[in-house]
Amino acid sequence: MNRLTRRDKNGTADTAEHVEVMFMDEKSQSEILGIIERLASYEDLGLKPEQIRKVDWLYSEKCRDVVELQKSPWIPVTERLPKCEEEVYIQTKNGTMTTAVYEYGTMPNEKSIWNWNDIDFDYDEETDTYLVSKGWWEYRHYNPDDVYNNKVDEEVIAWMPLPEPYAESVKK
Length: 172
Hints:
The protein is built from 2 helices and 10 strands. With 172 residues, the chain is α+β, with helices and mostly antiparallel strands. It has a 6-stranded antiparallel sheet, with no helix packed on it.
């Protein structure tokens, strides 16, 4: 690719073909010299336009990734609830944080992926089945008698998905 600019012995950018800028007003002259400097800096990279576009695209992608990482992983329950029976972290209005699942009150006990011990199920006469009651359930903070699962008895304000399990990275 032929250069449109050149640099003098002081490193100042100029056009390869002389462009008369001395009869312009000071602001316009300054803008033109700035444009020439930017073009010279681009040409100094030695990259082709498609390579610059690729770098620009990759940079934009990484910027979007950073924005996503900066967002809070917490999802307010007023915005949406997790999938039925998906184990998530929750936070209550009192600040309690634990893992829990949300039940929509439509899951038959026998089809649930969780073991439900000693709870009062809702009976559905239409289907002749017992349904897990609607609400948040957990098995760590609200279990005074070592019961396996308990209703969360505080107001849940937010939840977030559990992170991926730890996996040791392999170094080459």
